[in-house]
Design a protein that fits this description.
Low-confidence stretches: none
Mean pLDDT: 97
Largest sheet: 7 strands, mixed
Strand content: 15-25%
Helix content: 25-40%
Number of strands: 9
Order of helices and strands: EEHEHEHEHHHEEHEHEHH
Shape: globular
Number of helices: 10
Radius of gyration: 18 Å
Strand order of the largest sheet: 1-3-2-4-5-8-9
């Protein structure tokens, strides 16, 4: 099975992997800008997300293999690979397994280390949505607000809403599989995994996902890496400061 993607522009291949509970379309605006710099941008939906296939099985080995199947299907080589959060973990593992396919690696606001489960309230909130009663996006937002207080986070999550049929809302994500496998999302990169080509780590100045203690771990796995901090941004640094994010990426890839 091939991952669903939205391909924008023509030129050198540039793959973008979204984070947990996201989808490729979250990156559409930045992808258009990258495509104007002569990149063919592939916005992928990872398994159990967006329009890609659903599966009971979910871990980084599978996500990396899904990406390998995708690259083989489209004959993609010498790629620029960018991943955010969970997508960054997939990108890191893929680059260490298939370094011959990756020209440059960009990891947005995630470290190779282990992260404890911290999505409980979000998953509980999404699970509470009763679409036999909820008939509008506003009603879904109101119901989710009892679990997720931050408006920006709710807006991000509710992008998963879609019309299953006329008058019937649903979620595109495979919520059951993601709930059952949520512990996999925080798993560390295998201890001996390394990638020796150019790598850029981007972190938000208001985010706690990459701290000073992560720097030695990053350089151990990625000896040719550098870490840049994006100002005025948290974990969704690409959405909160897209201009600075774009500039940092373009400086690195060109």
């Amino acid at each position: 099975m091939i991952l669903h993607s939205n391909i924008i522009g023509e030129g050198k291949p540039f793959i973008i992997l979204h984070g947990f509970l996201g989808m490729g379309d979250n990156w559409k605006t930045l992808a258009k800008h990258f495509s104007e710099a002569n990149f063919e941008v592939h916005l992928l939906d990872q398994r159990n997300h967006g329009r890609s296939f659903h599966s009971d099985d979910f871990d980084y080995e599978l996500l990396a293999e899904d990406l390998k199947v995708y690259c083989d299907n489209y004959n993609l080589k010498d790629i620029v690979l960018l991943g955010h959060s969970m997508g960054g973990k997939t990108a890191m593992l893929f680059a260490t397994k298939y370094p011959e396919l990756v020209r440059k690696l960009i990891v947005a606001d995630i470290s190779p280390r282990y992260y404890p489960v911290h999505h409980d309230a979000i998953l509980e909130g999404l699970n509470s949505l009763d679409f036999s009663k909820i008939k509008t996006r506003g009603e879904a937002d109101d119901a989710l607000s009892h679990y997720v207080h931050d408006t920006g986070t709710r807006m991000f999550l509710l992008k998963n809403l879609y019309w299953v049929e006329k008058g019937q809302l649903g979620l595109r994500i495979n919520l059951e599989a993601l709930k059952n496998n949520v512990s996999e999302v925080g798993e560390a990169l295998p201890i001996h995994a390394t990638f020796n080509k150019d790598t850029l780590f981007l972190r938000g100045d208001r985010s706690e996902y990459i701290g000073e203690t992560d720097e030695s771990i990053i350089h151990r796995h990625f000896p040719n890496s550098k870490i840049i901090t994006i100002s005025n941004s948290g974990h969704w640094l690409h959405a909160e400061n897209p201009k600075e994010f774009y500039k940092a990426v373009m400086n690195f890839v060109s």
